[in-house]
Amino acid sequence: MNIVVCVKAVPDMESDFKIGSDRRNIENSHIVFKMNSFDEYAVEAALQLKEKFSGEVLIVSIGGEETKQVMRKAFAMGADRGILVNDSHCNDSDAIVVSKLLKAALLDFPYDLILTGVQAEDDTQSQVGPLLASALNIPHVTVVTHLETTDGKALQVKRELEGGAFEVVKLKAPALLTIQTGINNPRYPSLPGIMKAKKKEIKELTLSSLNLSPQNVGARGSLVERVSLEEPKVQSQAEILQGSAKEIARELLSKLKERKVF
Amino acid sequence: MDKILVLIEHRDAQILDHNLGALGFATQCARRWNADVCALILSNNPLALSSKLASKKINEIVHVQHEILKNYTLDGYTAVLRQWIEKNSPKMVVFSHTSIGWDVGPSLAASFQAGIVTDISALAFEGSEPIFSRQVYNGKLVEKVKIKKAPYFVTVERGGFASVEEGGAPQVQSFDVSLDNVQFRTEFIGVEVAQKAAVDLAKSNIIVAGGRGVGKKENFHVIEDLAHALGGDFAASRPVVDNEWVERDRQVGSSGKTVAPKLYLACGISGAIQHLSGMKKSNVIVAINKDPHAPIFGVAHFGIVGDLFEIVPALIEEAKSQGIAHR
Ligand SMILES: Cc1cc2nc3c(=O)[nH]c(=O)nc-3n(C[C@H](O)[C@H](O)[C@H](O)COP(=O)(O)OP(=O)(O)OC[C@H]3O[C@@H](n4cnc5c(N)ncnc54)[C@H](O)[C@@H]3O)c2cc1C
After folding, report:
1. A-chain residues within 8 Å CB-CB of B138?
2. Cα atoms in the Cβ-side hemisphere of radius 13 Å centred on B5
3. What are the Cα distances from residue A79, in Å, to A40, A50, A187?
4. What's the rounded Cα separation, in Å, for the pair A54 and B56?
5. What integer pLDDT is reported at residue A101 of this predicted model?
6. What is the structure's pLDDT at A73?
7. Is B18 left (phi over 0), alpha (psi -120 to 50) or beta?
8. B237: CA distance to ligand 1 center in Å?
9. Residue A186 pLDDT level (bands cut at 50, 70, 90)
10. Which secondary structure element, helix H or strand E, spans residue A24, and what is its range?
11. Is B108 helix (H, G, I), strand (E, B) or coil?
12. Over the stretch A147-180, which tens digit does the pLDDT of each residue have?
């Protein structure tokens, strides 16, 4: 069973984000990148299927140097090789363009299943998975929390609905699933895994090797455009309590009594 | 007259509440463009559902009736929406940001060579051009985006917009579809409801919730101890449940419980949009977080910037010595 996992390098969400001078992007210099946490679950799901049915796990991404580290982490977990679309013309592409780039990158790979995270932690669009599926003309199921297959072809999945309910869906590979956190426990890379990861291949592609023109990607090729990036407006400014832990505890309880909580 | 399509979602023969916010969003656009808001109900029995919308200030309720539309399927919904859009050329197509909206919206937009923006939390206009605000970086920043040309496809934050107003008398119409040639590539098997919880958090007056910041399962008892000392119940954010530190029925948020207690005390929870949607209506919200920029402080009434492992034990001790739990 050949499985593609689309991964994205995202900033650590606990970073102190600063808006750049262009007012449209964050300042990147001090940001530490990591694998989108939803994608870790997708990689794990792929590895479990590979262990059962054998085959290859291919990691695909669009990005620059920071993305290679993230792909190596997937290799260290057990993925086999990677394809990276590394071309600065692709910056500022909207999700539809991203899905076209991924489709082009996958052209020669005989996949049975494509997995993505439910969303990327940074821009939380939850679009690329379904868009890639429709570009490839295969069915998709989003927010998958459970995946069963006895032959690697017929799939039975559970997808999460609002409020804690689940929907059970059947479909056949080839298909695309967007994977939700909690579906499994992503493994930690082992030491031998980390050693092997260094030797695994990342094939880098540019627009010209994909036969795509710069006009059709990036900001120019996209219909969705970021106008600005801003600090959130908060509705209620929280009253910040200060002092020693003991002082804070006293003050908080007395404030809560004033508010008639107790 | 331009049209705005709003997809109405339903489950268990009920129209879901978040549709009213999606209709509210659509009416804001309709006012600006002098457009008609059309609410589409795809169902095996749309008539039984549409009474909830009968007095809303929208222009049309469109019934699409077919046995196969009893439950959501990607291919069924795509086929119906595509047929309606081809016939009516709406200026905007509005979904809620839900397991249906994000499932069917993006590919539908792409098939019309249209742009799509998801999980919109605020709306403004430059002339007649809509500017959408949405959270990025886990709510620490907000981006404003636009779509270069109509039609505009959007999904709007669940609970992010005020409900559509009352006092309208929408026309009810039916739209005939042909689904004979549709290939259904996914098969709906059934819905499993969440297990009955040992504790009904919706009835709790005081909830102490722990998040990923609690670090590991062995630490979680501090959250339980504080809940106990305050005479309340404990709850958790999603990663805590995913990591199996706590049972799933204590998860607060869009895919868990929605609560509105007198006090919600969030410890080591960042305040992601999906968590906030389950607790932001709480009466008093207190947040303990070591990151002063954590978005949870944006909804909190009282904030403590610091290490929960210092603050929570102090709170437990103080609450015990004051006998809070026995008041
Ligand atoms: C479809 C979908 C549905 C979802 N449904 C839900 C849902 O129902 N409920 C839900 O909660 N999430 C849900 N999520 C996940 C959500 O997006 C967030 O990932 C999640 O809420 C984050 O949980 P958290 O705040 O505990 O963790 P994090 O975002 O990792 O935050 C941990 C916080 O702890 C703080 N911290 C760390 N150590 C300490 C310390 N010692 N003292 C004090 N503070 C500390 C950090 O500063 C940080 O702010 C959903 C996501 C999707 C895509």
Report:
1. 13, 121, 124
2. 29
3. 11, 9, 12
4. 56
5. 98
6. 98
7. alpha
8. 6
9. very high
10. none
11. helix
12. 999 999 999 999 999 988 999 999 999 999 999 9
| Domain positions in chain B | 3-174, 201-326
Alpha helices in chain B (DSSP H): 18-33, 46-49, 74-88, 101-111, 221-229, 238-242, 273-276, 308-321
User: β-pairing, B302-305 with B263-267?
Assistant: unpaired
- B208, B226, B243, B289, best to mutate for ligand 1 pocket (most atoms within 8 Å of CB): B289
Domain count, chain A: 1
ipTM field:
0.96
Q: What spacing in Å lies between the alpha carbon of B253 and ligand 1's midpoint? A: 10
Q: Is the CB of B212 under 6 A from ligand 1?
A: yes
Q: Which of A30, A1, A20 is nearest to A11 (CA)?
A: A30
Q: Which two tokens stand for residue B120?
A: 């919109």
Task: Give the domain CATH number at A105.
Answer: 3.40.50.620
Helices H, strands E: what count in chain B?
Answer: 8, 18
Residue A236 pLDDT grade (very low, low, confident, very high; cuts 50, 70, 90): low
Show the tokens assigned to A168: 């059970």
Position B198 scores a pLDDT of: 76
- B 106-135 near A (Cβ less than 8 A): 106-107, 109-111, 114-119, 131, 134-135
**Residue A234: what pLDDT?**
75
User: How is domain B201-326 classified at the architecture level of CATH?
Assistant: 3-Layer(aba) Sandwich (3.40)
Which residue range forms the structural domain that includes residue A192?
Answer: 2-221
Closest-CA residue in chain B for A144?
A: B99
Q: With 90 as the cut, is the pLDDT of residue B194 above it?
A: no
Would you say residue A131 lies in a domain?
yes
Helical spans, DSSP H, in chain A = 37-53, 65-77, 95-105, 128-136, 191-197, 218-221, 245-258
Residue A243 lies in a domain: no
pLDDT at residue B196 is higher than 80: no
Third-level CATH fold of B3-174: Rossmann fold (3.40.50)
- Fold equal for B3-174 and B201-326: yes
Query: Which tokens is A207 given?
Result: 């627009």
Q: Which residues, other chains included, contact B323 with Cβ-Cβ below 8 Å and sequence gap of 6+? A: none
C-alpha B124: how far from chain center = 20
